[in-house]
């Protein structure tokens, strides 16, 4: 059937996945109504397609061409605390389309992760149920290393800074991105293939 319709399996999965503009119908950033298509992009994760806000891990973005020039080159930042200074969205879970889900119930799973990291199973996860107003509090943490550590040899420090190694397809090196890349390399080496959703991502 796929061959008759000129579709690959990857293209079929992409077409059957919900579009971000259908799921994210209204966006308010820092108290200002904003175009959702300029805030959310459709990305591929190990869970399948997701709509992502503030995602800068991939070298290439998935924003529509007509608005790609408006998208900032760096992650969005809040200027204060409290929900009025953050992101508010109206979500449509499209319950009538449900056939099979990862968890019992209708709603969304939020993966909270660094803007430059691939969202994997180690990301903090929150569940937002349908027909409810939900508030998600994020307590950021910042870890940094001084230049004294940068001057040490790799053998002594056992870690890399973000710009010291390039990972294919990623803007920045990080432990999380490195582990993801290692898993994909091992899968390709041992099985001769990649998971469907990763193959779509290139």
UniProtKB/TrEMBL annotation:
It is a multi-pass membrane protein. Gene3D superfamilies: Acid-sensing ion channels like domains. Its main location: membrane. It is found in: Membrane. One of its GO terms (cellular component) is plasma membrane. It holds the Pfam family ASC. InterPro entries: ENaC. GO terms for molecular function: ligand-gated sodium channel activity. Keywords: Ion channel, Ion transport, Membrane, Sodium, Sodium channel, Sodium transport, Transmembrane, Transmembrane helix, Transport. It comes from the Eukaryota. Belongs to the amiloride-sensitive sodium channel (TC 1.A.6) family. This is Ppk6.
């Amino acid at each position: 059937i796929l061959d008759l319709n000129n579709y690959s399996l990857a293209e079929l999965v992409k077409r059957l996945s919900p579009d971000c503009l259908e799921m994210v119908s209204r966006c308010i950033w820092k108290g200002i109504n904003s175009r959702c298509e300029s805030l959310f992009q459709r990305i591929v994760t190990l869970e399948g397609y997701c709509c992502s806000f503030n995602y800068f891990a991939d070298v290439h973005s998935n924003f529509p061409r007509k608005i790609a020039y408006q998208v900032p080159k760096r992650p969005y930042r809040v200027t204060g605390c409290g929900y009025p200074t953050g992101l508010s969205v109206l979500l449509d879970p499209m319950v009538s389309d449900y056939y099979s889900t990862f968890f019992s119930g209708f709603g969304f799973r939020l993966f909270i992760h660094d803007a430059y990291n691939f969202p994997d199973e180690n990301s903090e996860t929150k569940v937002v149920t349908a027909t409810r107003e939900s508030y998600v509090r994020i307590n950021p943490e910042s870890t940094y290393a001084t230049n004294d550590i940068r001057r040490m040899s790799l053998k002594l420090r056992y870690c890399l800074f973000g710009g010291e190694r390039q990972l294919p397809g990623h803007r920045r090196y990080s432990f999380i991105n490195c582990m993801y890349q290692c898993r994909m390399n091992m899968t390709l080496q041992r099985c001769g293939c990649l998971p469907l959703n990763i193959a779509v991502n290139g």
